[in-house]
Design brief:
Blueprint: H1 3-23, E1 24-28, E2 41-45, H2 52-60, E3 65-70, H3 77-85, E4 88-91, H4 94-97, H5 105-116, E5 120-123, H6 141-152, E6 160-164, E7 167-168, E8 176-179
Helix pairs in contact: 1-2, 5-6
Amino acid sequence: MNWFLKAFYLATKVLVNFSFSFFFRKTTILNEERLNFENPCILVSNHPSALFDPLVYAVRAPRFIFFLANYSLFKTPFQNWFFNTFYCIPIKRKEDVGIGNLNNRDSMDKAEIHLSKNGCLYIAPEGNSHIERRIGKVKTGAARIALGAEKKNDYELGLTILPAGINYEDQTRFRKKVVV
């Protein structure tokens, strides 16, 4: 990762954290010490807000986090460049490409290589964000990536899967509380 990308990530992290202090009335972080890890990690979380969820973890974790992001975010040349450059790995879903076109092998390889380099990866295994307070059907990508990364490293990677959760008082309204 070059110095510009690191600087951009850190500056964005400060800006987003500052913005959150205005948007959310109160942010409660439970077990924040668990975000301090040194080994490769997949951070898995529920996904009630497409915009906020990955950022809530990115501003709290002391590490650089890469994100699995839905393929539809990479549609235009600018979006494709931006999200590929700034820590996102595209994942195709049926609603993005239709039935029969779900070959995510390149994305899985990128995620496994990132983890093999002691990286951290954020995944919302439900695959979609939804406002209802329920866990949606969990997909298998996180487990497949974890097993693939371990296999690439002769099962000696020491990968951690860190389950996490976010509960917004109301993610659509200003000055509400959030618990992570």
